[in-house]
Amino acid sequence: MKIGLFIPCFMNELYPDICMATLKILKEQNLDVDYPMSQTCCGQPMANSGCSKDVETLAKQFVENFKDYDYIVAPSGSCVSMVKEHYEPFFHNDSDYNKVKTSIYEICEFLHDIIKVEKFDVSFPHKVGVHNSCHGHRMLKLGSASELNIPYESKLKNLLALVKDIEIVSLKRDDECCGFGGTFSVTEEDISVAMGKDRIKDHIDSQAQVITGADMSCLMHMDGIINRNNENIKVMHIVEILAGVKYE
């Protein structure tokens, strides 16, 4: 299979090491991975701000860049859900978009459901709390939402369980929002920060050393609060743990 690697724009600029960890994991699975050099933003920030004309331009460019791959894989649940759930009005049952829509996967979803990874040859001897970001958790079904009152399932925890020596801690609220919400964190700063503090406190109270998740945007938000308040906890994207990046 031919994989098109989609890297969210902010991760490309701010977190290149996590982008490389994503590539490392896919290459270790003996996959043929390509990175389209003309890719840009998926349009999520513009969509959040009501700039639909800009979203349409980016959506059509995205489909053109990725339409010929067997699978599209990205380390961001919110960006993947943007493509799957919010491009439809610009394409009107277009065959290229329909292919892209059914071919794009968040990396944990891809590893868990498509290639069904059975082990990672890495060790991470630390206590880890899993933050279930809203888009991935509810829209991509990376985990079962607590309000549905159905048996709990977490694809992130299933993958982390394949890592040697890791201890996954139990939180009081498994799928509570961190308060980032993209432009929400700008327009409603006080509420956003308060929600982030609550989310961090849940992890600290559970004695986690690391907060991990599948959306760097949420982790970035919490990391900013952690650094500002000198909290004794660290954030790491899940691909860093799966790729064997050391805790420092």
Automatic annotation (TrEMBL):
Q: What is the source species?
A: Malaciobacter halophilus
Q: One short Pfam family name for this protein? A: CCG
What InterPro entries does the database record attribute to this sequence? Cys_rich_dom
In Swiss-Prot or TrEMBL terms, this protein is called Fe-S oxidoreductase
Cite the PANTHER family for this sequence. Answer: LACTATE UTILIZATION PROTEIN A (PTHR30296:SF0), UNCHARACTERIZED PROTEIN YKGE (PTHR30296)
Give the Cysteine-rich domain ranges. Answer: 4-83, 128-223
Q: Which GO terms describe its cellular component?
A: cytosol
User: Membrane spanning segments where?
Assistant: none
GO molecular function (one): oxidoreductase activity
